[in-house]
Structures are given as structure tokens and as C-alpha cells.
Amino acid sequence: NGEEMTEDEWKQHYAKCLALELTGNAILEHNAKNELIRDDNFIWFLNAAEVDVEFTFPKTAKTNTWQLVFDTSQEWPKEQKHIDPSQPIIVRARSTALLMQENSAHH
Predict the structure, then answer these.
(1) How does pLDDT run across 10-23, given as a tens digit for each residue?
(2) Contact (Cβ atoms closer than 8 angstroms) between residue 72 and residue 48
(3) Do the Cβ atoms of 80 and 99 come closer than 8 Å?
(4) pTM of the entire structure?
(5) What is the pLDDT of residues 49-97, one digit of tens each?
(6) Of the candidates 49, 45, 25, 22, the residue with the CA atom closest to the CA atom of residue 37
(7) Whole-angstrom Cα distance, residue 40 to residue 3?
(8) Which helix (H) or strand (E) holds 11?
């Protein structure tokens, strides 16, 4: 549903899918030159279930533009594939998909 998981949801024995939002522009560490470390933002969808799963993007990601880095249920992308975050994304059974926010680094 695009919301953060509750404590009870983490404890469900049958939960076989997960989405992680990795925000590289929220890193609070500095490099050797004392510059704030920045990286791209990613959303990683993991589906260990035996059925396809529909994921909703988190609210924080719906205003951004995303591109598919890879989807293990498909051939490696030969060209950039843009993903509309206002629509759910289907992740095939027993597969994973990684999306990168366009123009996210150093913002």
C-alpha cells in the first residue's frame, strides 16, 4: 500500500514481498574532504512469493521520475525504461526489480 510496515506486518510468517526505498541523498556522512556524501535514490522491489505482486510506490516517491535498472523476470534493459510512480508496479513471482530516481544524485 506504499506505507511503512507496522510491527505486526514484520512478524507475519507468510509475508514474501518487500519494497525498500534507498535514499542516497539522505546520507549524513562526510568523505575525506569533509564533503557530504551523496548518491542516487533507489527503490528495490523483492517478491519471493509464487504469484505476481502489485506494489504501490511510497508517497515520497510519487512525485519523482523513475527508470528501471533491472528486472530479473526480463531480459537486461537495452534502453531506458521509464516507470510511472502514480501507477502500481507488478513484480513477477520470485523476482526482483530495481528502479533509480532520475537526476537524484547531488540534490
Answers:
(1) 777 778 899 998 88
(2) no
(3) no
(4) 0.78
(5) 999 999 999 888 888 899 999 999 998 877 888 999 999 999 999 999 9
(6) 25
(7) 21
(8) helix 7-11
Report d(CA 49, CA 99) in Å as an integer. 20
Handedness of CA 54, 60, 64, 66 (dihedral sign): negative
- Cell numbers linked to 38: 551523496
The DSSP 8-state label assigned to residue 14 in this structure reads: T
HSE of 82, CA atoms in CB hemisphere, 13 A: 6
Is 75 buried (19+), middle (13-18) or exposed (0-12) by CB count in 10 A? exposed
CA proximity to 98, closest of 9, 25, 74, 4:
74
